[in-house]
Design goal:
Blueprint (H helix, E strand, L loop, with lengths): L2 H17 L13 H9 L12 H36 L9 E6 L2 E6 L2 E4 L5 H6 L10 E7 L7 H16 L2 E7 L6 H7 L4 E4 L1 H11 L3 H7 L1 H12 L3
Parallel strand pairs: 4-5, 5-6
Antiparallel strand pairs: 1-2, 3-4
Helix pairs in contact: 1-3, 1-9
Length: about 240
């Protein structure tokens, strides 16, 4: 199977998982918009405020659905990136990530990168091609992949900072790839002190330079499949 077909399968899989999400399953006896509206209309706390409105359903149920969509987009980009690394550099699956034990909030926890390149395993051709990416005395690059950095939680930011410091201690350059341009600015600015961070088009450009694959153009070329699946997702609201 070629790399493009692999990527199509990854995209289709993750978006299809969102289609399996049932936004009404948490409500006993509720299976669709109409029954949800009826429930709200009979709720003594909400009925006096006329919340049995289709826009209320879209906001409340749609919010949960969008959270699920964002989560799967993050999973999708991570798998796409790992697949591109494995394909370009022939990296075995078990070597695509690097694990560390970190002390997070007083507890020892295992954290793994979302991608890993060990320079010692690269061919001479790849080492030469990546010479501008390789820093002196570095053993490799450890990656964290985010579709968008939208978490402002201090503990999460601290954990990402500690991950970068631990990677540097191991002689591994920490690189964070953020695909969107609408991340929360404060945590990204803070983490940029510890990670080499790429955002938006710069992330796609970095991946193209690293793997030789133009992911941005590929995604736009698959607009029919993506538009169809996302249209079905929005139709669930």
């Amino acid at each position: 199977m070629g790399i493009e077909e692999k990527l199509r399968e990854i995209i289709h899989h993750h978006l299809s998982v969102v289609l399996e999400y049932n936004p009404f399953e948490r409500f006993d006896g509720i299976s669709d918009k109409e029954s949800f509206l009826e429930m709200i209309g009979n709720d003594p706390a909400f009925a006096p405020f006329f919340l049995d409105n289709p826009k209320y359903v879209t906001a409340r149920i749609g919010g949960n659905l969008i959270t699920s969509l964002h989560r799967k987009l993050g999973d999708m980009y991570e798998e796409i990136f790992k697949t591109l690394l494995a394909d370009k550099f022939q990296i075995p699956e078990e070597e695509l990530s690097y694990s560390l034990i970190l002390n997070i909030d007083g507890k020892l926890q295992k954290r793994s990168t979302d991608g890993m390149i060990k320079y010692s395993s690269l061919s001479k051709k790849d080492k030469f091609r990546l010479r501008n990416f390789i820093s002196e005395d570095s053993k490799g690059m450890g990656f964290e992949v985010r579709s968008c950095y939208q978490i402002g939680d201090s503990k999460r930011i601290q954990a990402d900072r500690d991950m970068a410091l631990a990677l540097k201690k191991e002689g591994i350059d920490p690189v964070m790839l953020i695909f969107c341009t609408s991340s929360l600015k404060s945590p990204v600015k803070r983490l940029a002190e510890f990670w080499t961070i790429f955002e938006g088009e710069n992330t796609f450009g970095f991946i193209r330079g690293l793997t030789g694959f133009d992911l941005y153009s590929f995604l736009h070329g698959e607009h029919k499949m993506i538009h169809n699946l996302v249209g079905q997702i929005f139709g669930m609201m």
